[in-house]
Amino acid sequence: MAEANKTGAVEEKILLRAGSCSVTILPNLGGKIASIVVNGHELLQAPLAAYAPRTQTMAFDAGDASGWDECLPSVAGCTVETADGPVAVPDHGDLWRVAWTEEGTGHQEHGTGVARGGSVTLRGECFSLPLMLERTLLLTEKGNGWRLNLDYTVTNTGSSTVPWSWAVHPLFATEEGDKIVLPDTIQELRLEGSGGGRLGQAGKQVGWPIAKLATSGKTDLSLIESPKSGIGDKLFAGPLSAKENWCALERPKAGIRIKFGFDPAATPYLGLWICSGGWPERKGPKQMCVAMEPATAPVDSLAITGPWSRKLDPGQSDFWTMTVDLQTL
């Protein structure tokens, strides 16, 4: 069932439980999913810094840079043209910086063999553009694991047409030897960026899973390397076909398989952030994680337009869904 533990502005938590799986959400820190625990094992990237209030202009790596956030209306900081003039959108968007409001909590009784789960609906409002995102989570036991259902609605709350793009930003903890699995038909990815230029320049196509290194040799992008490797790569697949509607992270030592399911008709691109000690570039602790990111665009910046570009008229909404299956190995 859904429980609330309201001990302070930053510390306020919403806890969803289903058997030995729990999901912790911090509504006042951008609706962040701060923790997903299965059988006592934390699945998300731990905070790199203490949780603290965010400003409208700080860089993402100036915060905790952990857990699961939502990127709207852009992943990269950029300036976009609107009917009301140019608008600056900050790094990783608006929503991880603002308090979200809770629309309801509760639990549902399900049929035989399905345990009681927890659900919660939260809303976050952007400040750079007049956009509101509503996200409903439902956690249930399913087969040999658990399922997290996510339903999204974005709405233009303003009086003029505005551009938007969305990407989910779930940082799942990894260790050397873990494996990213994509549909066999995905054989190339577009490079958004690569730490130290190891895969080459942004915009090039790289092979999947075997990619050529910019200097010489090859690498298997699907296999997670040690934190000493200093890897930090961002790539995109898509536009995806109806059958290319999933991706997975296998963690043999942790005994878990994390599988995302999504609708390519609504979110036709998949971003992959693969970080093994390569980010942040400043001194201090580094990420060791993989983010599987269903997205509306194959680029991080809303200012880069193309056939993927989207706009919402005043009062108009768009909808999409996603599932995350946590399967024990």
List the helices and strands and how they pair.
Blueprint: E1 2-5, E2 13-18, E3 21-26, E4 32-38, E5 41-42, E6 68-71, E7 78-82, E8 85-89, E9 101-108, E10 117-125, E11 131-142, E12 145-156, E13 162-164, E14 167-173, E15 179-181, E16 188-194, E17 205-207, E18 210-212, E19 218-220, E20 231-237, E21 246-251, E22 256-262, E23 269-276, E24 288-295, E25 310-312, E26 317-328
Antiparallel strand pairs: 1-2, 2-3, 3-4, 4-5, 6-14, 7-8, 9-10, 10-11, 11-12, 12-26, 13-25, 14-24, 15-21, 16-17, 16-20, 18-19, 20-23, 21-22, 22-26, 23-24
Describe what is shown at a glance.
This protein has 329 residues and is mainly β.
Estimated radius of gyration: 19 Å
Number of helices: 0
Residue runs with pLDDT of under 50 for 5 or more positions: 1-8, 105-116
CATH architecture classification: Distorted Sandwich
Largest sheet: 8 strands, antiparallel
CATH topology: Beta-galactosidase, Chain A, domain 5
The portion of residues assigned to helices is under 10%
* Terminal CA distance: 25 Å
Strand order of the largest sheet: 9-10-11-12-26-22-21-15
Number of domains: 1
SSE string, helices as H and strands as E: EEEEEEEEEEEEEEEEEEEEEEEEEE
Q: How would you sum up this structure, described in words?
A:
The protein has 329 residues and is mainly beta. The chain has one domain: Beta-galactosidase, Chain A, domain 5. Helices cover 0% and strands 49% of the residues. The chain is built from no helices and 26 strands. It has strands at residues 2-5, 13-18, 21-26, 32-38, 41-42, 68-71, 78-82, 85-89, 101-108, 117-125, 131-142, 145-156, 162-164, 167-173, 179-181, 188-194, 205-207, 210-212, 218-220, 231-237, 246-251, 256-262, 269-276, 288-295, 310-312, 317-328. A hairpin with a 5-residue loop joins strand 18 and strand 19 (218-220). The chain is globular. The relative contact order is 0.17.
